[in-house]
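This part of the workshop introduces the protein records we will be handling. Getting from the letters to the tokens is the skill we practise here. The record below serves as our worked example for the rest of this section.

…
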Amino acid sequence: MENIALIESFSEFKDDKLIDRVTLMAILEDVFRNALKKKYGSDDNFDIIINPDKGDMEIWRNRVVVADGEVEDQNSEISLSEARKIEPDFEVGEEVSEEVKLIQLGRRAILALRQNLISKIHEHDNTNLYKQFKDLIGDIYTAEVHHVRPKAVILVDDEGNEIVLPKEKQIPSDFFRKGDNVRGIIENVELKGNKPQIIMSRTSEKFLEKLFEQEIPEVFDGLITVKKVVRIPGEKAKVAVDSYDDRIDPVGACVGMKGSRIHGIVRELGNENIDVINYTSNTQLFITRALSPAKVSSVKIDEEKKSAEVFLKLEEVSKAIGRGGHNIKLAGLLTGYELDVIREGNTLEEEDDVELTEFSDEIEGWVIEEFAKIGLDTARSILNQDVADLVRRTDLEEETVLEVIRILKEEFED
């Protein structure tokens, strides 16, 4: 009865943990063999028969019969007189099989058995979990917010697995509440002790690439290839795409009619501005496309230094650099070249131009700095821009921009 009761107790784990029958039998046998080794010094001469479905188990010890007084190993040998107490017709050299009841192992050993089983099942679960999520690295995964911590959001999936979304892997505009569904990619699985820690990311370039696969059928089907993705999470991204079918316009297919296809991706990424660019192996053309929306006049490449001088008309410079320098930075990352903007323009105008720093007595330093961030560091470079465009590209109010324009116009009127 003791054997059956214990196995019934162990069988509970099978239902709770959804462990298959073969795995449970292997774990149980391993646990019992460890207990036998501790009790008898070796488990080599023991047969363990387990049937967790029926809730029964048998342990048999096999010993060789030796003459009385010649027993050297109590575990593997039995004297003739002891053997004949079991069966009167045993002879020297024969093998005796005798059932071992769990109660013979002692109460402490039985408690240790249960604890060891729990440990082995947890170890099995953790190993399976590690393997499962290791195979999911780089894939999009959805989980629910369990609780929000200052340095991370803890998510739980449908199977109760805990996933960590660290603060630095979140898009700056991300804001989560308990119960929210969150999408990201499984970026890494780390072992903390014996327990796997699953790390999710929403800032990875791979996340944006996988969103393209998920949202754009031609990318999913392989008709369009995502060649490279670069991002400043939550701000701006550039995606180079290509198609081996000349009938397919990869940029048009990715963006969709009036941006219908890419709109969902932009919304998922906290309104991140995404430029989709036609990939080409022609470096000059690729650099020109990468600097979109600016119109580039010409490009001079230095292959040795992996750099390029990009010539632009004055009114295109701010577009090429972009707000906070994001556009030119991403264009450089996308193409693999260090890009240097060279202004073209009317020579008389340039001679007549004035550095913005010359107005520091009338315009505050932080305002001058805001214009410099988008590549506007002279009076005429600002006066050649549209007011609405200046407001959109900087962190300045329209009132401030209009005041700066008034001051600059007065300079040229004088």
